[in-house]
Amino acid sequence: MRVAIIGGGAVGGIIAYYLYRGGINDIDVYYASTASVEAVRRNKGITVIIDNNKYLVPVTPYSSLTPNGIYDIVFNCVKSHQVKTTINLLKKIIDSKTVIIMLQNGFGGQELVYEKISSERTVFGAVYFGAYRLDRHIVELRGPGPLFIGREKGLYPDMLEIATRLKRGGCDARVTSKIMFYRWLKLGVNSVINPLTAIARAPNRIVLTPEGLALASRILDEVVLAAEKHGVSLDKNRLLRLVKRIAESTRENYSSMAQDILAGRRTEIDYINGYVAEIVGDGVNRTITYVIHLIEAGVLS
Ligand SMILES: NC(=O)c1ccc[n+]([C@@H]2O[C@H](COP(=O)([O-])OP(=O)(O)OC[C@H]3O[C@@H](n4cnc5c(N)ncnc54)[C@H](OP(=O)(O)O)[C@@H]3O)[C@@H](O)[C@H]2O)c1
Question: To test the ligand 1 pocket, which listed residue (18, 60, 77, 141) has its Cβ within 8 A of the most ligand atoms?
């Protein structure tokens, strides 16, 4: 089975670790920058830190400009707004049998490949583990959690095989036809924790303040409505409890959006709160999206 990962960042690095431990020895990892390719080449792979233990995962790094043949499985682990930059590469490394597993948070990024590349070969994903990229060649698993992959209709043998390999490697990988439910649930969590921590430049515990919880409640009202319009039923109170539980168990962590803002990088707001706003219209998610855009543009600090 030929396997490639597009995007060897936080999520891609952890996926490489699980695949390698699951018995897949030959893993090609594609990067956008030559600096990342060089760093991983020098390191002879990706260093993955789990529970303070370091493991070297021997992958072969490639630039996205130098495709290395056709793969059976491709994990797409770039950020949502980077997905469009992977389309050219994808076209060169897949055939009609390749399974493409999309692992972006939110909605819009995964859909782009579904629409532009193949509705048949695209498998959706929802990542519930938390990972950090400490350096170009070093990633750390900081919050274990399941990985859901699936399609509403049709399961492929390769998809089941790869889930088995991931499980063997220690990943809590689950194949489900209810993938949209798990993606919406994850969007619910992200829609609260990410922007609130990014606006406050504060760790996740900021969500647990009275103001944080009041905002959470309003954000989730709209998330539940948006999900319903897309045929997914979410229970607002259960979702709020999940958000609180995650904010509590990760209280000192900085969300990926908070990290992006602190590092001056573009965020995934359009694919999370912005996506909800597109469905439900003006409301708190729209306002939050505007505020994050102003911060990204350096207008608001
Ligand atoms: N981190 C988490 O804990 C977590 C959890 C759940 C879901 N997610 C989601 O997973 C997705 C990835 O997040 P992440 O934190 O892993 O991001 P990340 O650490 O920033 O990694 C992104 C990687 O994509 C590469 N890349 C970008 N454009 C590319 C292209 N055109 N071709 C090849 N490689 C390309 C980058 O290459 P360079 O190294 O060259 O820049 C980088 O290695 C996001 O949608 C995020 O919301 C993340």
Answer: 77
